[in-house]
Design brief:
The protein folds into three domains: about 5-320, alpha-galactosidase from lactobacil brevis (Beta-galactosidase, Chain A, domain 5), CATH 2.70.98.60; about 335-635, Aldolase class I (TIM Barrel, Alpha-Beta Barrel), CATH 3.20.20; about 650-725, Immunoglobulin-like, CATH 2.60.40.1180. The chain has about 725 residues and is an alpha+beta fold. Helix 8 links the parallel strand 25 and strand 26. It contains 13 helices and 38 strands. The strands form seven sheets. A nine-stranded antiparallel β-sheet has the order 6-7-8-9-19-15-14-11-12. The protein has a nine-stranded parallel β-sheet with strand order 28-27-26-25-22-21-20-30-29. The chain binds alpha-D-galactopyranose. The site of alpha-D-galactopyranose has 12 residues, from loops.
Length: about 725
């Protein structure tokens, strides 16, 4: 039983194989947080301390007891207006405009299986062997009648606990929710670091680790989407934790819209970390009877460092977030037209690329931006999702047929959430864009955002996508999103303060309907690369284009950062031409292949201008890809070095049964001379002997982990090497 209630102490404990999470309703009905960490059977209320802290509030019920204060006690779901002056999860205003929502526990319920969230993505469990359970704890504010159902899900064998919260107005007057958080954790002791993942367009997911300080470190996105600037995840870890040692806790948001995450030390040196909806443009009225659901947060704990934490998150994303027929399948090896020819192509160009691609062993051709309306540049036509037959020289159906005749599957690019002012769609429906009456809209990439919070617009977008997909056997859709939202104003909504939240519900409903109608369609999402790389999108699209930066050396750091929370099977990565179009750097084709193969793999360069030598190298890469793809997709991932601080970036995949390992290493440019560098594999079976399958070299596991693998002296800047071992 992963969730138990101790009848003497009243403690509710959620167990996973290697962790436990505990809470307790106290004498005044407040829900206190007792523990999240190493698995224990004790009641951890012994950690609670009571002290008269000056200027901290005491609830009226505590009478003359000035040592009882929510300002210092650890809580499950801190709410504003209770004398806790730290960061709240919930801010509610009543119909007079008065703030405050004192929540007391009403009861709890434990149910078999993992809960689901209406209209929102969430971790799912389809098999009884997961032993998943759910806990609902209900809190209530008597004055307003607001109730909060705190939801907890557990996948015990994956060391995963999820949280969400549903706020309902059970009162008789309207209220407004001004902040809605999903998960909060309080730690009464400990000295921690915080890791977050910052970035920008074409340089996403850069890890940043710092000592936690007094006050709040807040990250998030006010862009309407999860954003390039901060990935919606964070890790709290012991100050001295490493890849292989120490306690670490992760919070990962299963949501693709704006978010707010914070961490910091309070006046007593206690730590609070939180994650939830962005609150700056959020203000959600709830009439009596109405509810609002906070998106889910995935949490995991590891006492053996960051690598185990990542393994837990990877398994969860791979098996319980990603769904559909591609979840466990090696994805098609594709050629994408974007960096190959940008807007400059005809149907004939694509057919000749397909011919060349087939000859090399590539399986799919993806026609990226530029095929519809009058789209020869990025100033027009978004929304006009019908083929430019003059440019293609034929209809879309005919083009699909021609590509198929060359032996390739066909995939297509769309950016369904957007509209160009120069488009038939915008001319017909200017009010479909998110714009503020009386203000000139903010443009970005010269485009506007469609108001998916309105059902009729979401329906029209869904239908326009279906019309494209029904032109023939389209096997893959690249779903792009190339700007942030500036105006959260809907021309049709009743409540402007929830437009961005409803936009996400609209987006998810379209993706959900597409998944149902086209179960064999692979959707790769994209937002100028990794601007919306989150577990919410992965629920509908099992892979995401990780970055518009395809430079293999920059990708080392981008993919390293991504790997903390997301498995390689989700990371869109392609081999592109050199000098790289973004950085101007030239790297060996072999290195570009090894780096792209550590994702979903494909090519994005003009095959028709390659030399015979380059083509042979690509054929060899594709043979390697078929040998290793299963291991890369399903194996455990180890970060062997930190590319920001090491002359070599090395990483490893090992099968769950430890019988097969793939170790990749790239020498990073500009890090000086490199005498006899070694890399140290991890996770091998201790007493096994492994054979390197390309050279026949035999090595004992102990020898390899102790003494490392020596990299050849001949490895120069940007060179790379692969070792493939079998026991
Ligand atoms: C975005 C994507 C690119 C490409 C272009 C097309 O930038 O990230 O891969 O699809 O749009 O306009």
């Amino acid at each position: 039983m992963p969730i138990t209630v101790d009848s003497s102490s009243g403690a509710i404990t959620i167990y996973t194989d290697h962790s436990s999470y505990q809470m307790q309703v106290d004498r005044y009905g407040y829900l206190l947080h007792l523990h999240y960490g190493p698995r224990t059977d004790s009641c951890m209320d012994k950690l609670l301390t009571y002290a008269d802290v000056g200027f901290s509030g005491n609830p009226y019920d505590a009478g003359t007891d000035r040592t009882y204060s929510l300002d210092s006690l650890p809580q499950e779901y801190p709410s504003q207006g209770t004398g806790d002056y730290r960061s709240p999860m919930l801010i509610v205003r009543d119909h007079h405009g008065t703030y405050g929502c004192d929540l007391r526990c009403q009861g709890h319920e434990i149910t078999h299986g993992k809960y689901r969230l209406e209209g929102l993505p969430a971790v799912c469990s389809e098999s009884d062997s997961d032993d998943a359970e759910s806990l609902t704890v209900t809190l209530k504010n008597d004055r307003t009648g607001v109730t909060v159902a705190l939801l907890y899900g557990v996948l015990p064998h994956k060391d995963i606990i999820t949280r969400s919260a549903v706020v309902t107005n059970c009162g008789t007057e309207p209220v407004t929710v001004e902040r809605l958080g999903s998960a909060s954790l309080d730690f009464v002791s400990g000295r921690f670091d915080l890791m977050t993942f910052y970035g920008r367009h074409a340089m996403e997911h850069i890890p940043e680790r710092r000592a936690l300080a007094h006050g709040e470190t807040v990250i998030g996105s006010r862009r309407g989407y999860s954003s390039h600037q901060f990935n919606p995840m964070m890790i709290l870890l012991d100050h001295d934790a490493t890849e292989t040692d120490g306690n670490c806790w992760a919070m990962q948001f299963v949501y693709s819209g704006g978010f707010r995450a914070s961490a910091g030390l309070d006046q007593c040196g206690q730590t609070r970390i939180q994650m939830g909806l962005a609150d700056e443009t959020f203000s959600c009225p709830l009439k009596p009877g109405e509810s609002l659901t906070a998106p889910e947060v995935i949490m995991s704990f590891s006492s053996t460092g960051l690598q185990t934490l990542s393994h837990n998150l990877h398994r969860c994303i791979r098996q319980h977030i990603c769904r559909g027929s591609f979840r466990d399948r090696v994805r098609p090896l594709l050629l994408n037209s974007w960096e190959t020819c940008y807007f400059d192509f005809t149907g004939e160009t694509l057919v000749s690329l397909a011919k060349e691609a087939h000859d090399l062993g590539i399986e799919m051709l993806v026609m990226d931006d530029g095929w519809f309306g009058k789209r020869d540049d990025d100033y027009r036509s978004l929304g006009d999702w019908y083929a430019n037959e003059t440019k293609l020289g034929c209809s879309l159906s005919e083009l699909i047929r021609k590509i198929n005749e060359e032996g390739l599957q066909f995939g297509i690019w769309m950016e369904p959430e957007m509209v160009s002012e120069d488009s038939d769609l915008y001319r017909a429906h200017p009010d479909w864009a998110l714009t503020i009456p009386g203000e000139k809209p903010v443009r970005a990439r010269y485009q506007l955002v469609l108001d998916l919070s309105r059902r009729e617009i979401a329906d029209a977008v869904f239908e326009s996508i279906c019309r494209v997909l029904d032109q023939g056997p389209v096997r893959y859709l690249k779903w792009d999103c190339n700007r942030s939202i500036a105006e959260a104003y809907s021309h049709g909504a009743a409540a402007q303060g929830r437009v961005l939240y409803d936009y996400m519900l609209g987006l998810y409903s379209i993706l959900d309907r597409l998944n149902q109608r086209y179960p064999d369609l692979l959707i790769e999402s994209c937002s100028g690369g990794g601007g919306r790389f989150d577990a919410g999108m992965l629920y509908y699209t099992p892979q995401i284009w990780c970055s518009d930066n395809t430079d293999a050396i920059d990708r080392l750091l981008i993919q390293y950062g991504t790997s903390f929370g997301y498995p390689s099977s989700t990371v869109g990565a392609h081999v592109s031409a050199c000098p790289n179009h973004i950085t101007g750097r030239t790297t060996p084709l072999n290195t570009r292949g090894i780096v792209a193969m550590s994702g979903t793999f494909g090519y994005e360069l003009n095959l028709t201008t390659l030399s015979e030598e380059e083509k042979n190298e690509i054929r060899r890469q594709i043979t390697d890809f078929h040998r290793y793809a299963g291991l890369i997709q399903n194996g455990l991932y180890y970060r062997l070095t930190d590319p920001a601080h090491s002359p070599v970036c090395a990483w490893e995949y090992i099968s769950e049964d430890r019988s097969e390992a793939l170790i990749c290493a790239v020498r990073i440019p500009d890090r000086g001379d490199l005498p006899s560098e070694r890399i140290y594999p991890r996770g091998l079976k201790p007493d096994a002997v492994y054979t390197e399958t390309n050279t026949g070299m035999s090595c004992e596991a102990g020898e390899m982990t102790e003494n490392g693998l020596l990299l050849p002296d001949s490895m120069k800047e940007a060179d790379s090497i692969l070792f493939h071992f079998k026991s």
